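Hypothesis: this fold can be encoded by more than one sequence.
Test: take the C-alpha cells below, design a sequence, compare later.
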C-alpha cells in the first residue's frame, strides 16, 4: 500500500485537483493514506485536506515521511493529476523494483512551450520511492523537491498531467 505526500504552500485549488485524481487509487485499495505537508499556507489548504480525509502536517515532506505508514511513498506537487490506470503500473513497479520511479508526462501535455515554462522541477512528474530510501534522503533534504533532485529513477508507463508552474513572486 502507498502513502501519498503532497507538499503545498497556498495552493488549495491545485491540492483539490490532485486529490481528485487519487480517488480511484483509494477505491482500489492502493492508496493507504494521503499526507498533506503544508509549509505555511494562509489560504484554505488545511480545510481542503481535512474535508478530503487527509492527514495534515504543518511542515515539509521530511516530517510527513516520518508519519507515513506505507512501504512506498508517492510524492506529488499540488495541481498534478494522475491519468486513469496509474494504479496498475504502480502496483507492478512496487512488486518488482526497489528503485525510485517517475511518471511519464501525459501525451497531451508534451508541447515545446510546456517544457520551456515548466522549469526544472524535480517533482514535476511525481516520485515513487520506497519509504526507507526517502527517510534516508530526508535527513539531508527536508523538502520533497530536494529529496527528488538528482535521484536516479525509472520511467513508469503511467501518465501524469504536470502541475502548472507557480508564478514567481516579484520583489
Amino acid at each position: 500500500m502507498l502513502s501519498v505526500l503532497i507538499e503545498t504552500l497556498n495552493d488549495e485549488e491545485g491540492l483539490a485537483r490532485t486529490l481528485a485524481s487519487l480517488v480511484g487509487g483509494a477505491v482500489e485499495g492502493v492508496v493507504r493514506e494521503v499526507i498533506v505537508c503544508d509549509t505555511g499556507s494562509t489560504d484554505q489548504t488545511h480545510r481542503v485536506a481535512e474535508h478530503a480525509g487527509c492527514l495534515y502536517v504543518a511542515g515539509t515532506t521530511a516530517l510527513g515521511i516520518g508519519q507515513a505508514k506505507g512501504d512506498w511513498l508517492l510524492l506529488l506537487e499540488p495541481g498534478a493529476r494522475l491519468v486513469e490506470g496509474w494504479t496498475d503500473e504502480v502496483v507492478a513497479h512496487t512488486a518488482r523494483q526497489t528503485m525510485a520511479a517517475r511518471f511519464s508526462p501525459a501525451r497531451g501535455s508534451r508541447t515545446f512551450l510546456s517544457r520551456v515554462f515548466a522549469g526544472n522541477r524535480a517533482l514535476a512528474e511525481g516520485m515513487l520511492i520506497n519509504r526507507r530510501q526517502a527517510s534516508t534522503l530526508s535527513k539531508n533534504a527536508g523538502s520533497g523537491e530536494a529529496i527528488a533532485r538528482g535521484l536516479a529513477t525509472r520511467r513508469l508507463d503511467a501518465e501524469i498531467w504536470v502541475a502548472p508552474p507557480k508564478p514567481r513572486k516579484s520583489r
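The mean pLDDT is 90. The helical segments are 12-27, 45-51, 61-67, 86-96, 112-118, 131-138, 144-148.
Hypothesis status: open.
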